[in-house]
Amino acid sequence: MKWDYSEGLTDFDNPSSGLFIICEGNFQYSNATLSFYNPENNSINNEIFFRTNGMKLGDVAQSMVIFDNKGWIVVNNSHVVFAIDIDTYKEKGRIENLTSPRYIHFVSENKGYVTQIWDNRIYIVDPKSYSITGSIEVPGMSPSSGSTEQMVQIGQYVYCNCWSYQNRIIKIDTETDQIVDEIFVGIQPNSLVVDKYQRLWTITDGGYDGSPYGYEAPALYCLSSEDLSIQNVFKFKLGDSPSEIQINGDKDKIYWINDDIWSMDVDAFALPAFPVIPHNDTKYYGLTIDPLNNEIYVADAIDHSQAGMIYRYTPDGVMIDNFYVGVTPGAFCWKY
């Protein structure tokens, strides 16, 4: 992927808060895009990275976080993390030469972690110099089966789910950059959040029929962050495909996609009987909860080739707005 700047670029009148939508595009098509939505006036600006910087975002935009007034966009198959100004959308720097990055998490003003697929290392990066400074090798994981994903932090420890052909949650001491504990769960835990009790929640997809790694009923796990012991397990049906576990601003209710959109109190003793938002000829692919008002945003990938749709709902599942974005919207990042 070559990145070249152009003249005659767009300047945006940017609100102080809103929602970034990260659109993957198609693998090897280099058509990833970035959008920004303003909930105050229901306005959407698409292709903001290209329109601001005069160059395409790259191949498969995976995730984004905000740190140090910059938006850090992980572009998986382009092996890069871009840093943009969250008000102007202009590029401030980039971290290159990554293997296949998935997520980035910052533990201090001088250090961040980048997880990867097809690599058994989590890279350590310096956000000041935009450079790779080291790595954390995950034991018992080869490069060909390497897969580290989302990260959450509690105190000095970062927790990370290992997804593709993996079945564990690892615990990293950020002071030593060493893996100090792990727990094996079901096949392929695909997302991770922390609740108000400092417990970890992960959801497994169970693999697929014919997978060399195995195929089983998916499950929702609640784990102690202190010793990684299993506190509760909620089993789904074989053939279900739960994903994208999210949590609200008060951290007392979790949400996920399983064809429909589901929600459950973190104190519940059983899975809910009915969804909060039923699916209707949709391909729900991404999910986020507004941390301030608990509104629900759902990304519909449609057919993964045309512009995707974002649906905005009240906490009770009543639609407020919907709008088109780029191809395959899959991730969100709140700006507050």
Written overview of the protein:
This protein is mainly β. Helices cover 2% and strands 49% of the residues. It has one helix at 48-53; strands spanning 18-23, 33-38, 43-45, 61-67, 70-75, 80-85, 91-95, 101-108, 111-116, 121-126, 131-137, 151-154, 157-162, 168-173, 178-184, 189-194, 199-204, 219-224, 230-235, 243-247, 253-258, 260-265, 284-289, 296-300, 307-313, 319-327, 329-335. The chain has a 4-stranded antiparallel β-sheet with strand order 3-2-1-27. A 4-stranded antiparallel β-sheet has the order 4-5-6-7, with no helix packed on it. The chain has a 4-stranded antiparallel β-sheet with strand order 8-9-10-11, with no helix packed on it. Strand 8 (101-108) and strand 9 (111-116) form a beta hairpin. The longest helix has 6 residues, at 48-53. The chain is globular, with a radius of gyration of 19 Å. The model is unreliable at 1-8 (pLDDT under 50).
SSE-based structural type: mainly beta
Task: State the total count of DSSP E strands.
Answer: 27
Outline: globular
The rounded distance between the terminal residues' Cα atoms is 32 Å
Walk across the major sheet and give the strand order.
3-2-1-27
In round numbers, the mean pLDDT is: 96
Report Rg. 19 Å
Number of contiguous helices: 1
Largest sheet: 4 strands, antiparallel
List the keywords.
336 residues, mainly beta, four-stranded antiparallel sheet, 1 helix, 2% helix, globular, disordered N terminus
Give me the secondary-structure topology.
Blueprint: E1 18-23, E2 33-38, E3 43-45, H1 48-53, E4 61-67, E5 70-75, E6 80-85, E7 91-95, E8 101-108, E9 111-116, E10 121-126, E11 131-137, E12 151-154, E13 157-162, E14 168-173, E15 178-184, E16 189-194, E17 199-204, E18 219-224, E19 230-235, E20 243-247, E21 253-258, E22 260-265, E23 284-289, E24 296-300, E25 307-313, E26 319-327, E27 329-335
